[in-house]
Design a protein that fits this description.
The chain is an all-alpha fold. The chain has 5 helices and no strands. Helix 3 runs parallel beside helix 5. The longest helix has 28 residues. It starts with 11 loop residues before the first helix and ends with a helix.
């Protein structure tokens, strides 16, 4: 017998699966990766952290805020956007946000710390 996905019965394995889904969600990883790279690859941590926050803002926070807003307004089913037809608009806004963030990082005169974050951000686009 097949189990219904949204079954009201909560098993420990179901809870574990939900937690792992949220912890390893691309949205969270897109926010954490620039911070890890920015802090790890720069000698003054404050400079790396500032670059990392710019990367996290444009790669994760802005796109996910737009998704959250779409869910709250009823335009999207949930934050995972399970309905394929609803994915185009959030994807375009997310891409636009990442491109604006890349442009800001590229336009800044300090190139060193931003190079690693720029590479991380471009790799985020590939996923």
């Amino acid at each position: 017998m097949h189990e219904v996905i949204d079954s009201p019965v909560r098993r420990p394995t179901h809870l574990l699966a939900r937690v792992l889904t949220e912890v390893f969600a691309p949205a969270l990883l897109a926010a954490v990766m620039p911070i890890v790279v920015g802090v790890h690859r720069t000698s003054p941590v404050s400079v790396g952290l500032s670059w990392a926050l710019v990367g996290a803002l444009f790669c994760s926070i802005i796109p996910n805020t737009l998704i959250w807003w779409g869910v709250r307004r009823g335009r999207l089913t949930d934050h995972h956007i399970r309905v394929r037809e609803q994915r185009r608009t959030p994807l375009m806004y997310g891409l636009l946000s990442v491109l604006v963030g890349l442009t800001l990082m590229e336009a800044h005169p300090v190139v060193g710390p931003a190079t690693y974050l720029w590479t991380t951000t471009v790799n985020t686009l590939n996923n």
